[in-house]
Amino acid sequence: MQATHEVKLDRIVKQLKQREGTAYLKLKKKTVSHMVPKPESKTYTDEKLDISDFDEILSIDQRNRICVAEPGVTFEKLVEATLKHDLIPAVVSELKTITIGGAVAGCSIESMSYKVGGFHDNCLEYEVVTAKGEVLNCTPDNENSLLFQMIHGTFGTLGIITKLTFKLLPAKPFVRVVYERFENLDDYKKAIWEHFENKDLDFMDGIIHSPDLFILSKGYLVDEAPYTHNYDWTRIYYTSTAERSEDYLTTPDYFFRYNKGVTNVHPKTRLLRFLFGRIMNANTTLRMATILRRFIPSKLIPVTVDTFIPFSKIEEFMDWYIKEIDHFPLWCVPYRIVHKYEWISEDFFDNVTDELFLDIAIYGMRIKNSEFYYKIIEDKLTEINAIKTLISTNLYSKNEFWNVWNKENYEIVKKRTDPDNIFRDLYDKTCLAARGLDEEQPKTNSGR
Ligand SMILES: Cc1cc2nc3c(=O)[nH]c(=O)nc-3n(C[C@H](O)[C@H](O)[C@H](O)COP(=O)(O)OP(=O)(O)OC[C@H]3O[C@@H](n4cnc5c(N)ncnc54)[C@H](O)[C@@H]3O)c2cc1C
Predict the structure, then answer these.
(1) What's the CATH code, domain 5-171?
(2) What separation in Å is there between the alpha carbon of 213 and the centre of ligand 1?
(3) In the chain, at which end, N or C, are there fewer CB atoms within 10 A of the end residue's CB?
């Protein structure tokens, strides 16, 4: 019989309170980590705290459209449960086994973000356990409000999320998607801006197939569908956006239309998808890569990075991108900044007036010397007041990093929740230990 939430919580509180020493600690979950595998990472050998049984939905309040759940709940399980109440989460990350805890602690964006921001922006309360085993309830306006804001995007370095309370939205059983084609960025931007202003779509994302083929995917929740397609076997979703003018999917199939990979689909060939497509997807690929990481030279791991570009800077970025990198297709996800985020440095944010950003995601770029490309992307992003997710290779120097992320707020919370630094520091975990390093390396100019 599954232990209650309180019994499970008591267990890890005791473990943390009785723990001696300050060896690094990381979380053991049931599902694969959706961070890009890093063969050299030092964190793989950190001591593990098992929270794999924190994967239950505790309540769904249909009248107030609120869900309370544990962090290990996957988006697949959450969508299945909430749809029974004609409700859906405000944001659903596109891979079935991404968890809601990981979406808050890491990143979360998808085609509803143009209206509601990330999954974390629709959370109302977190239960967080500190390194010393203290249980803190955090809301946007209680005494733990800074921790509430800073827990997002800090990759488990400020505490363990053990329970989340978040909003749900009304649902319908199907999604109709209309694909609009554009041959230049200017017209593409105009169309995105118009829907952003009118908020007349349930979902908006797109695929940039090449420098002169831009697809805008406009999604509508609907009660009926003349037919439906799914993309969890032989079909590839992103290519269908250039081949079709319209499509219908069940709502769950729409949410997980990229479960085989957004633009980096596995298996690659139709025959292999026919043979193995039912069992292989982005999650199984990640699991295999994590298991086999010692045998995979890191330079063979394709470049995978989400870049968040202020809407007003997208021309400058794309001009540079086509000249310097020129890898297509790209995933384009409009993202509304719903809150002045405490985890971004004041100075960095002061130069940003845009309410709308575009996530331009590079997935599966196979290239020699990937570090060179990660670095020039980082430098360009900083130059135009843009940021990236920290899920893959990060080469920021400490100064460059804390010019973007908010060191002051981070240290205020860290002192409170993990004074002995057993969860590792954010810069150390995402930029050094992830590359097998203990300390910053002198800059090298490795060239292309
Ligand atoms: C191929 C690929 C595609 C992706 N596509 C998208 C996308 O489209 N949209 C998007 O939003 N994201 C995307 N991501 C990023 C992914 O959503 C984030 O990396 C997310 O954080 C992963 O969540 P997870 O549940 O797998 O958690 P994990 O990968 O296990 O954890 C992520 C981080 O959160 C911490 N963490 C996890 N659970 C907790 C907890 N309970 N308390 C405190 N800290 C915790 C971990 O320590 C870790 O540092 C993608 C990643 C990959 C590799």
Answers:
(1) 3.30.465.10
(2) 30
(3) N
Express each pLDDT in 88-107 by its tens digit: 999 999 999 999 999 999 99
pLDDT confidence band for 446 (50 / 70 / 90): low
Q: Whose CA is nearest to atom 29 of ligand 1?
A: 33
**Which of 25, 31, 35, 43 maximizes ligand 1 atoms within 8 Å of its Cβ, making it the mutation to test the pocket?**
35
**Number of C-beta neighbours around residue 5 at 10 A:** 18
Ligand 1 atom showing the smallest separation from residue 155 Cα: 49
181-201 confidence digits (pLDDT tens): 999 999 999 999 999 999 999
Pair 171, 251: CB distance under 8 Å: yes
Cα(47) to ligand 1 centroid in Å equals 19
Is the CB of 99 inside a 6 Å radius of any atom of ligand 1? yes
d(CA 291, CA 310): 37
Q: Where are the domains of the chain?
A: 5-171
C-alpha–C-alpha distance, residues 18 and 25, integer Å: 14
